[in-house]
Every structure is written in structure tokens, then in C-alpha cells.
Backbone:
């Protein structure tokens, strides 16, 4: 029988909110249940880079007082993990990199400030691939993250820490960032819900940038309703982020009515790729049939430039990364390696502070932007990016959402792809197009293959997260997958 603290740790946020509101559970009890699991399990799982125990306890006490006073906010008392690319004043922000070891931001990211206003209890800063560059969370400069379902497997990346924390009962909700699939892919690997909002829906102010035209912050949760609650809390325009778009933010959870009649779901022929694992193919096909049985109409669509998305991304993202990471040279931020001259100081700081994958992407990006190659690579990539977006624009004329696998495989073994960057990059083949087009996407659990979770991805029209979430919720409620969680013990 699971213990009472274990049951609290795996409560969905909506259920926890009801128990908190009726005073059957206190925010302090909820926080302590999660902190106890972090203490017992995280030395093995590696989900957190910095645990904010005292902060969480203080916030939980304040949450209980707020509930007692009858003035709770939407997330009052709910334990949340933050990917360590989100700036916080009360804990280090390292982006998983040695070059930012010990760095403390003088301000909170906008999403962090909104979480605090909503009453959330922040448990800590979750592990990530260095500067969010990776698909397995093995590129963290501090430690890898292990998948709670099977410890010899990766959790996905780059938001592997937040995904594994929610999956393993080490957080109720979490925030990650998604540049090419870094929320959806680990959500799929860990059997939780992960949402990449429309570009511009959520402020990026205070997010340590990887690729500024692609990055987007979004929720991890156990259920679609929980993800909808969290998205409502963090979304909306921000005067500190010129790329945030002033569009209304609906109460996303209120739109989850379960009725799919009349909705058209697109099946893209280009998402049937070689190399997809049979178990993934079977689970996704069954999920599509279930959506049809719930009243949705299936419509075949074509996204002909999908085959160029991966190559386009790996020109665009490294090019933007090479510009964004130029600011990290040990003077204004983070650690510095002293040397006889200023140039040598920069060289040694960056040489020792950045890991291999970050260096690889900086070099690729610098090459793509260099004189004589800019037009041949970066400019051409932006033209192809426009074609990818136009493919989706045409598809939206005939469908409301598009369905696809989240990843062609289940979680692979730790170390299996670290020596083959190309194979590692292929893990994001289904998620990258949404970032290139700026559209929203969600991954939800749709079954298991070889005992490991399989993710189903839904893509939506720009700023129509509501329809995407509605379809995801209807499927989720018709299947048992969201009720399942790994049996995690304190040893491998």
C-alpha cells in the first residue's frame, strides 16, 4: 500500500487544490511530502540542481494563511519545480553550466513572478541539459537525470529534470522551456503532460536564451487540466518582452468539455517515418482510433517541407545560440578563469566553462553566420522555415489540430547516443516543426512500449491552445494512462 505522503506526492494539482481549499490537507503537508521524496530519491534521479527547502516551507506556511483567510489564488499551495534556465532571486540560476556556477539573478523571470503571485510553492531549480542544448539531459554539467520509469534510461531533454520530477512525484507541476521539443519530448519519455505554447503566448523575460526566435516556456503536469491551469497562470503579454503578443488569455481549464464532435484532426502523411519503433507506432495508431471513436473526424493532410525541418533547425538554433552565448565570458556573469591577458581569460573561461555540446553548437552557429556563408546557410534556412509555416497554414484550412507521435522511440539508454550527435538530434524529428512554425503543441501519455511510456503529440493553430487542450483532455479522460506512475525506490 502506498503511504499517505506518497499519495500526496502523486496528487494531480486540481485534486490537491480541492483538498487544500476544503482544509483536508495543508500546504505545509503537501510541501513536506514532496521535500521528503526529493531527499529520499533525488540523489539517484538527479532531477534537481538546487532544492529550495526553506523557501518552500515559508511559501507553504503563507499559502495556508492565505487559504485560511479565504483569499487563495489559483495555484495557492501547489508545489512547483522550475527548470534552471529561469531566473530567480532566491536561488542560483546555472542553466546546467559550469560557466554560471553560483550565479544569482537580480530579478525573477516573469513566469516566476506570476507563479509567486498565483500562490505556488517553489520546490527548487530542476536539472537541464547545459543551456537547454540536448535531447537526453546527459549534457548537464553537474549530473545526468534518470528516467523514473527505468533508471538506466534517459528522461529526454533538455527539460529532463522537470519532466522526471513530475513523473516521479518530486513535484506536482513544473515549468520547462521548449526550443525544438524540450518540453514535449521529455514529457513523452516520462509519461506526463507537456505543453509548448504558441510563440509569444508566454513571456520569455528572465529565460536564459538558447535560440530567441524558437524558445518558449511551458508547463509539465500529470493531467491536461493541471497543465491548462498552469498555462493560464503564466500566459499573457509582458511589457518586458517585446515578443509577447497582446492576445486575451482564456481560462483554459474551463474549455475542457470533452466534446470532440465536429472537430477535424489532421493525420500528416509525412510523420510516418522510417525508424519508428513498432511499439510506438501501435500505441499512436490506437490513440488515433480512440480520438475518432470520441467523435472527431480524421482528415489526411500534407506538410511537404517537414523533411527539411531538422536541417533548418540545426542551422537556425545554433546560429542564434552563438549570438546569445557571446555574453558569457566570465566578466558580467558566473565564474571566470584568470589568465595573463584579457583574451586568454576569455578563452580559458569559455573553454573550461562550456561543455562539448554547447561548444559544438556555438561553432556550427558561428560558421553559419560567418561572412561568405550567411546567405548560403542562415538566410536559406529562414526561407525554408517560412515554407514550413506555410505548410501548417494550409493545413489549418481543413483541420483543427494535427496528431503525431511525440518521438519515434521510447526513452533510450543512458549513453546510447552521446557519441552520435545525429542520432541524438533525430529524437526531436516530430517536435521541431512546431517550433519552426511558432505553433502550440502538447504531448500526452498514450500507452506503453516495453514498459516505457509513449507520447502522443497534438499540434494546434496559433493561439488556439484551447482547442488543442480540449482534444488532449477528451482523449486523456477516455484512457487510464494519466493515472499510472512509476514505482520509484531510493536505489537503482
Residues:
Amino acid at each position: 500500500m502506498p503511504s499517505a505522503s506518497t499519495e500526496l506526492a502523486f496528487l494531480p494539482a486540481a485534486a490537491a487544490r480541492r483538498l487544500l481549499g476544503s482544509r483536508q490537507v495543508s500546504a505545509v503537508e503537501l510541501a513536506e511530502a514532496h521535500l521528503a521524496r526529493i531527499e529520499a530519491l533525488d540523489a539517484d534521479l538527479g532531477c534537481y540542481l538546487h532544492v529550495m527547502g526553506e523557501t518552500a516551507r515559508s511559501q507553504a506556511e503563507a499559502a495556508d494563511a492565505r487559504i485560511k483567510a479565504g483569499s487563495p489564488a489559483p495555484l495557492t499551495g501547489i508545489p512547483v519545480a522550475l527548470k534552471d534556465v529561469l531566473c530567480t532571486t532566491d536561488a542560483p540560476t546555472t542553466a546546467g553550466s559550469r560557466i554560471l556556477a553560483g550565479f544569482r539573478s537580480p530579478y525573477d523571470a516573469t513566469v516566476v513572478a506570476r507563479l509567486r503571485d498565483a500562490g505556488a510553492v517553489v520546490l527548487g531549480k530542476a536539472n537541464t541539459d547545459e543551456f537547454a542544448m540536448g535531447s537526453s539531459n546527459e549534457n548537464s554539467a553537474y549530473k545526468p537525470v534518470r528516467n523514473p520509469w527505468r533508471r538506466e534510461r534517459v528522461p529526454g531533454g533538455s527539460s529532463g529534470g522537470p519532466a522526471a520530477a513530475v513523473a516521479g512525484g518530486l513535484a506536482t507541476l513544473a515549468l520547462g522551456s521548449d526550443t525544438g521539443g524540450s518540453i514535449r519530448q521529455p514529457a513523452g519519455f516520462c509519461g506526463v503532460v507537456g505543453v509548448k505554447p504558441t510563440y509569444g503566448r508566454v513571456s520569455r523575460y528572465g529565460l536564459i536564451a538558447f535560440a530567441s526566435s524558437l524558445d518558449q516556456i511551458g508547463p509539465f503536469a500529470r493531467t491536461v487540466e493541471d497543465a491548462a491551469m498552469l498555462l493560464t497562470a503564466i500566459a499573457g503579454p509582458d511589457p518586458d518582452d517585446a515578443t509577447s503578443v497582446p492576445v486575451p488569455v482564456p481560462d483554459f481549464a474551463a474549455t475542457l468539455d470533452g466534446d470532440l464532435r465536429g472537430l477535424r484532426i489532421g493525420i500528416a502523411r509525412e510523420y510516418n517515418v522510417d525508424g519508428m519503433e513498432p511499439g510506438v507506432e501501435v500505441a499512436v495508431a490506437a490513440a488515433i482510433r480512440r480520438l475518432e471513436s470520441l467523435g472527431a473526424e480524421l482528415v489526411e493532410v500534407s506538410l511537404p517541407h517537414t523533411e527539411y525541418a531538422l536541417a533548418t533547425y540545426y542551422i537556425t538554433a545554433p546560429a542564434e545560440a552563438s549570438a546569445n552565448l557571446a555574453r558569457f565570458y566570465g566578466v558580467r556573469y558566473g565564474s571566470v578563469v584568470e589568465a595573463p591577458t584579457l583574451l586568454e581569460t576569455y578563452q580559458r573561461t569559455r573553454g573550461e566553462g562550456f561543455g562539448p555540446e554547447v561548444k559544438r553548437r556555438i561553432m556550427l552557429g558561428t560558421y553559419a553566420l560567418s561572412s561568405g556563408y550567411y546567405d548560403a546557410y542562415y538566410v536559406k534556412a529562414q526561407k525554408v522555415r517560412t515554407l514550413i509555416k506555410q505548410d501548417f497554414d494550409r493545413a489549418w484550412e481543413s483541420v483543427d489540430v494535427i496528431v503525431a507521435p511525440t518521438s519515434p522511440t521510447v526513452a533510450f539508454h543512458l549513453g546510447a547516443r552521446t557519441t552520435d550527435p545525429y542520432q541524438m538530434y533525430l529524437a526531436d524529428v516530430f517536435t521541431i516543426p512546431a517550433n519552426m512554425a511558432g505553433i502550440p503543441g502538447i504531448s500526452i501519455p498514450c500507452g506503453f512500449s516495453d514498459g516505457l511510456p509513449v507520447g502522443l503529440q497534438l499540434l494546434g493553430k496559433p493561439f488556439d491552445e484551447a482547442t488543442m487542450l480540449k482534444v488532449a483532455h477528451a482523449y486523456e479522460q477516455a484512457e487510464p494512462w494519466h493515472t499510472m506512475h512509476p514505482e520509484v525506490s531510493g536505489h537503482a
Observations:
- The radius of gyration is 21 Å.
- The chain has one domain: 4-266+398-483.
- The CA atoms of residues 374 and 380 lie 9 Å apart.
